[in-house]
Structures are given as structure tokens and as C-alpha cells.
Design brief:
The chain has 491 residues and is of the alpha+beta class. It is built from eleven helices and 18 strands. Strands 8, 9, 10, 12 and 18 form a five-stranded antiparallel sheet that branches. Strands 13, 14, 15, 16 and 17 form a five-stranded antiparallel sheet that branches. A four-stranded mixed sheet has the order 3-2-1-4, covered by helices on one side. It is rod-shaped and about 125 Å long.
């Protein structure tokens, strides 16, 4: 054998790993005599080399029999648990961030999504760092990457558990949040025991970077969830106007044009969840004594439409025409407008004194929620083959139903509670109804009438969800004299 360099085996560190140097240069490390022979074999040393020969190998801190802490099974268990936790946390971060990063309406919400995707990328990079840090530690930053991934997991799961505690709904995901939270505490404890900060080149800059990232995420969450919805109120311009009627000498009817118009004059695009226009004919008896007000009974006070006149008595409203405007699921972006013209037919000898046109619709703010595609398909309540909701028309009447899931624009909210659904009921004979709740027709088939469903719902939940998603009603009405219209009629 030719002359070979003197091999020096350094003392074992506290993990039992012994570095191998040749001419002061580290060429490898080993946890056992067997691993030492593998390292030397790769460098060209013979397999039967006498490792106890001091002319070839110099041992520091103990001879070839000193491998005090070689607990390979323990290291492998720690590595497996670290990898499992970081992998689960990476999937969680990507799952939360992806929906917001590609589908959120506002820049702040997209920024939050991107931050979660970046956190997932960091945790993905920390996976090989785990193997290196609990292995031979050839990469100086491996410990810092693992620590950063663990801190991200702890921060995110703490936030998720806090959000879940606000709702306290029984969901399977909370088990994952709790498991990852406990794992992050265990992992952080292990890293503290390992004094991982010793391997970080600039620990103060590292701590500052983590703090800035956390503050950016908190500010973005607050801006997108609280400030932005408040600072950008919605505003609509609505019109319901009767035009000049026309008739024919041979026809007993008068045709009255009705123009409906809506414009989103605010800064927030919205979904129209349900809409309706109705034309009412007013019939009342004349009260010569002027005591018509004494018959007022407060009907309609809930909607703010109560009224009374001294010389009107026993006023009756009759539904002349009713229909949908744009249709549930349609949208009105900021600055967008929509108009429709209809023709209302009344007899020439009508007993109606006035006509009242009402345009109303319920809106859902797009900066707070997003409707599922299934919401756009309508169901008829009186057709049993169409499935999820059926009720005999002689019991419940006839309703066109729209039903689908609604997702909050901040995906952190979606993953910490049960799914929410929007259900709307429209009928030309009744006021349109809409509610958001956890009630799902698909899983809870029902044959109850609408009022039965409402009674089964949690009223507090319905009000809370309406406020959360910005569900509200906008309306306008226009009243004209029938005699005045008839005088304007064109022949």
C-alpha cells in the first residue's frame, strides 16, 4: 500500500457523531465503526484496514470502541415525526392559501393567500432540512429552516383554533388543527433543547424577519376582513317607472309600459341572490266622513310601508304582475347597470285607483362571499323528480328554489366551521325569501313548507350569517294614478 494521509477521528459530539478529518479537512462523519469504514472506503482506503493502527488512524476522545450515543432508532423516530408534521402543515397552508391567492376579490385577500403559499413553500424546503439537521448537518441553515417551519405551524394552528373557538362547531378539521398545534409545541421543545439558534448565521435578523412576516399577515387579515368591508359601502340607483300607455279601440285592455333599472353606483361588486318586481293595484272605498284613518290597523308596519288617508277606507292590494329582474346568481359589478322593460295589461274599465310598482332584490357582497356554481340552477318545489326539496303545491304553494354553497372570501373562516348554504324561494304570489345557514337540502331532504324550514333554523345563526356575508335588501317603488295614465293613453 502506498503512503496515505493520516486519518483523524474527532471526539463524539453530544449526539454521538464523530467527524473524520484528513489534513484538517472534514471528509465525513460516522455514528459507528461500520460507517467509518464506508467513509474511508469511498476515499480509497482498503476495507480490511486496521483502524486501531495509530500510524494510520489517530483517535481523539476515545478509541474505536467509543460510540456513546449511537441511538439510530431514536433519530429516525424524531425525523419521521418532524417530516410528518411539516408535511401536514405544508398541505394545510397550501390548501388555505390557494383558494385566496387565485380567487379572492381584493388585493389584500390575495396577499394573505400568497403569504400562506409562501409558508407552505418554506415548510416544503424544511423537509430535506430535517433529514440534514438530525443527520450529519452538512447545511448550516438546515436548523433555521426547520425552526421557521415549526414557528409557522404554531402561529397558523393557534389562529385556526382561535377562529374555531368563536364558532365551536363540530368539524373533523379541528382534530387536524389540534394535532398540528400539539406537534408544533413538541417540535419547538426539541429544537430548543438542541439550541438550534446556534447554527443560525444572524439570529437577530432571522427573528426580525419572522416578526415582520407575522405582522404583515396580521395586517392583511385585518384589512381584508374588517377595514375593507367597512370602508367600501355599497350604493345602488334603482328605478321603477311607468311609461305612456297605449290601447286600441277594438281592445278592452290598456297596455302600460314599465321600465325597471338598477345600477351599482358603489365600489363593491355584488351577487343578486334573489330579485322580484311586482305591480300592485290599489282598490279602496271612499269615506265621506273623513274617518278612514280610524280604521288603520298597523298592517305593513314591519316593512315601513304603513299609511292611512282620511277619505280612504278598506284599502285592498291586488297583485297584477310579478316576475324576476336579472335572476338569482347574476352579478352587478361596480358601475354596471341593468334595465328591463315590461308591459302591464289592465282592463279599460278597471276599478284600480293607483298602480304601485315595486322592484326589490337581495344582494350578497362579493368582497365577503362567493357563490357556488350549483346555485345558478333552479329547482321547482312542486316537481318531486327534481329532488332536494319537494312539497305538494296545495300545502306549500309553488316556489322556484335556488340553493348552493357560499364560501367566505377569507378561507381561514371556511376551514374552521361547517359549510354555509344560500337558499332562496321565489313565487309570483308571495314575497321572495332568502337565508344563509348551515342547512343543506341535499343531506336533509324535507317536505316541510317554507315557514316550517324557517322555524327549524336558528334565528341567531341566520342573522349572524346575513351580517357576515353582507346580505341585505334594496328596493324602490313608484305609484301612479290610473286615471292619469288612462288620460295619457295613445290609440
Amino acid at each position: 500500500m502506498g503512503i496515505r494521509a493520516w486519518v483523524v477521528v474527532e471526539p463524539p459530539d453530544r449526539r454521538g457523531l464523530r467527524r473524520i478529518t484528513i489534513h484538517g479537512k472534514v471528509v465525513g462523519s460516522a455514528w459507528s465503526l461500520r460507517e467509518l469504514r464506508k467513509v474511508l472506503g469511498r476515499l480509497g482506503y482498503p476495507a480490511d484496514m486496521d483502524l486501531d493502527d495509530r500510524s494510520c488512524v489517530y483517535w481523539r476522545g476515545g478509541d474505536s470502541g467509543v460510540w456513546p450515543d449511537d441511538r439510530g432508532w431514536r433519530r429516525r423516530v424524531v425525523i419521521a415525526l418532524m417530516l410528518a408534521g411539516l408535511l401536514g402543515s405544508m398541505v394545510l397552508h397550501v390548501g388555505i392559501g390557494w383558494a385566496d391567492a387565485i380567487g379572492a376579490l381584493t388585493f389584500a385577500q390575495r396577499l394573505v393567500g400568497v403569504l400562506f403559499l409562501l409558508a407552505g413553500a418554506v415548510q416544503g424546503a424544511a423537509l430535506p432540512a430535517v433529514v440534514d439537521y438530525w443527520g450529519r448537518r452538512q447545511v448550516r441553515l438546515s436548523g433555521a429552516l426547520v425552526l421557521l417551519g415549526v414557528l409557522m405551524t404554531l402561529a397558523t394552528t393557534t389562529l385556526l383554533l382561535f377562529l374555531w373557538l368563536r364558532e365551536r362547531e363540530l368539524i373533523a378539521a379541528v382534530l387536524l388543527f389540534l394535532a398540528l398545534w400539539c406537534w408544533s409545541l413538541w417540535a419547538l421543545r426539541n429544537l430548543i433543547r438542541e439550541k438550534v439558534w446556534r447554527g443560525i448565521p444572524h439570529p437577530r435578523k432571522f427573528a426580525a424577519g419572522v416578526t415582520v412576516t407575522a405582522l404583515m399577515t396580521a395586517i392583511s387579515l385585518g384589512y381584508s376582513s374588517i377595514y375593507k368591508p367597512i370602508a367600501a359601502p355599497y350604493h345602488f340607483i334603482l328605478k321603477a317607472e311607468f311609461g305612456i300607455p297605449w290601447t286600441d279601440a277594438d281592445s278592452p285592455y290598456v297596455h302600460v309600459p314599465l321600465k325597471l333599472y338598477a345600477k351599482n353606483d358603489g365600489g363593491i361588486p355584488v351577487y343578486i341572490v334573489v330579485d322580484d318586481y311586482t305591480v300592485w293595484g290599489h282598490v279602496s272605498e271612499f269615506s265621506a266622513s273623513g274617518e278612514g284613518m280610524k280604521e288603520w290597523n298597523g298592517e305593513g308596519s314591519d316593512s315601513g310601508s304603513s299609511q292611512a288617508e282620511a277619505f280612504k277606507s278598506k284599502e285592498v292590494l291586488e297583485n297584477i304582475a310579478s316576475g324576476q329582474f336579472q335572476g338569482p346568481g347574476s352579478t352587478l359589478d361596480s358601475g354596471e347597470e341593468f334595465s328591463m322593460e315590461k308591459v302591464v295589461t289592465i282592463p279599460k274599465g278597471t276599478r284600480y285607483e293607483t298602480l304601485d310598482a315595486v322592484l326589490q332584490f337581495a344582494i350578497l357582497r362579493q368582497d365577503r362571499g362567493k357563490l357556488d356554481d350549483k346555485f345558478y340552477s333552479s329547482k321547482r318545489s312542486w316537481v318531486q323528480s327534481e329532488g332536494r326539496y319537494y312539497c305538494q303545491p296545495d300545502v306549500c304553494g309553488k316556489h322556484v328554489i335556488y340553493h348552493g354553497r357560499v364560501r367566505y372570501n377569507n378561507n381561514l373562516i371556511n376551514v374552521t366551521r361547517k359549510p354555509r348554504y344560500v337558499a332562496t324561494f321565489w313565487s309570483p304570489e308571495e314575497e321572495p325569501q332568502v337565508f344563509i345557514s348551515s342547512f343543506n337540502f341535499k343531506k336533509k331532504k324535507t317536505s316541510e313548507p317554507i315557514y316550517g324550514i324557517y322555524e327549524a333554523l336558528d334565528e341567531n345563526e341566520v342573522e349572524k350569517e346575513a351580517d357576515r356575508y353582507g346580505l341585505s335588501w334594496v328596493s324602490v317603488n313608484s305609484e301612479v294614478s290610473v286615471k292619469g295614465l288612462l288620460k295619457q293613453a295613445q290609440h
